[in-house]
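@channel anyone free to eyeball this complex?
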Amino acid sequence: DSGVTQTPKHLITATGQRVTLRCSPRSGDLSVYWYQQSLDQGLQFLIQYYNGEERAKGNILERFSAQQFPDLHSELNLSSLELGDSALYFCASSGGVAGNTEAFFGQGTRLTVV
Amino acid sequence: AQSVTQLGSHVSVSEGALVLLRCNYSSSVPPYLFWYVQYPNQGLQLLLKYTTGATLVKGINGFEAEFKKSETSFHLTKPSAHMSDAAEYFCAVSGGTGRRALTFGSGTRLQVQP
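replying in thread with the prediction:
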């Protein structure tokens, strides 16, 4: 158990809809990262939050957004969903922006867009 | 900019044989290097990491990796494969103060034959 909790584990929704994925980081970790894993794109970094503020952006679509709340949990919002958004979405957490602590990953949310 | 190349999307070894999974990286700053393992329907688990110092790093489950700057490589090895090692393995790089998101390779699926 990594200590990172993601909900829900599975999500099936229709094209055009909006969903919210939730992540609770390990106790004490300030950084949260979101990654997307798909067969054609592999594992891609989407966005990082540190202590409530956006810190780095990767290949995140404009239809996607995220936030980190005062209790440090994070949500990833995906809107106007397309079939190609079907993927496994991982959240990871770590202790800080810099330094050499590793990222711990949650079990992921498997999103299926039909 | 950073990138990771994993040579061989599939590797098959016999139980008890040497495991060698190859990883080459590119980084414009001193890299932090990681190997993660993913079992079916699970998240990513850290096997080992290199940040600074000793170039031969030991991880969990008998795995080790050697950082070779001159070859820009970070190959993962295990002297004797076990059936339970069958999984997908990802090499990843991060670097630069203030940004610790991971850039992943495309992964190598390890099969262990009895």
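from a first look: DSSP finds no helices and eleven strands in chain B.
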